[in-house]
Prior knowledge:
By secondary structure, this protein is mostly helical. The protein has helices spanning 2-8, 13-24, 27-42, 45-73, 76-95, 100-112, 117-128, 134-144, 146-162, 167-184, 208-234, 239-260, 267-284, 290-302, 304-318, 324-353, 356-371. It is 76% helix and 0% strand. Helix 5 (76-95) packs antiparallel against helix 10, helix 9 packs antiparallel against helix 12 and helix 13 runs antiparallel to helix 17.
Amino acid sequence: MRTYLELVRVPGVLRVTVSQLVARFPLGMLSLAVLLHVRHATGSYALAGLVVACVSVGEAVAMPLVSRSVGVLGIRPPVLAAALLNATGMLLLAFGPPQPVLLLALGVMIGASVPPLMPVVRALYPRLVPRRTVPALFALDTSAQELIWITGPIAATLLSGAVSTQAPLVLAAGVTLGGTVWFVLTPHIAGVRLPRSETRPGIVLLTRAVRLAAAASCALIASFAALEIALVARFDGNSVFAGLAIAVSSLGSLIGGIAFGHRRIGPRGLAGILGGVAVATAAAGLVPGIPLLYGVLFLSGLGFAPSLAALYALVSEALPESSTPEAFGWLNTAGLIGAATGTAVAGVLGDALGAAGPFIAATVASVVAALLPITPGLRPKRALPPA
């Protein structure tokens, strides 16, 4: 904990970290808010699902390119423009006519205009703190963002039920814009200019560290997305128990990141942590009773944030400063692909095999994530930095 206390005492770190987390809070409620509103407005789950898919596709395609643009245009113009477009798209979705083509187009617009705060902030961290504490700051950030995924879905469902399905979209628009303005007005960002990348778009993917981080992030997030489907299937008809189960796993991730994120681990250590996630995920599909299930879900979450933080730190150390925003943009895209793949595969297996199917999908994805750090061609040539 001494390391984290040292970090928050560095001028500007707390404000930068908190402001970008506030601005990113709507991401935790966005998919559910869009799904609930489009379903209510059109009566179609199919169309609602397609609009949510458009949001994910738009973000996956645009994020690396928008992240790369901060080296050309500076931090403030792209980030502010994206936030304004994003908020506008959500308000148009909330109050516009429920025409299918318009809804799909707005889905793409909302996804493509998600402000690139995660890539930008993680490219900025080495400028804010001493180099030796950068990995710990990644761990703190990765752990704290679990609060987004714990509270976001709850806020979306409560507002939709108690007020209207438009309410979470309006809240998301306001928080995105307000939080982004707070972030860009932080004094420690004023005048900061990330160097312009001199390489072609996508070249960073040839770097071993980026390939490992992207592949492992994709597999790990696919596992978590499949696990969410598995829990919904297991608690069929009781969304409260399913939501609590997901929150317990996220809480484990939050605690694991804070407790273990600052430790130095090697490729085998990372594989071991992810192997533990795989074992706990498999156990979740086998154990009887709710208390025992919640216990293994907590254990499965413990390795999530430390693993991602270690991968982010590896990328930060392996690349020149000019390439890190685009690289972190690609990691965001990899996570989106993983989430979409995990959800889709788990859904298909759920139809074919019942509740056991999504648990199998989650376990397989977590096993793949565990094997990647020790796979030839991806394994780091030196020990991973402390996460």
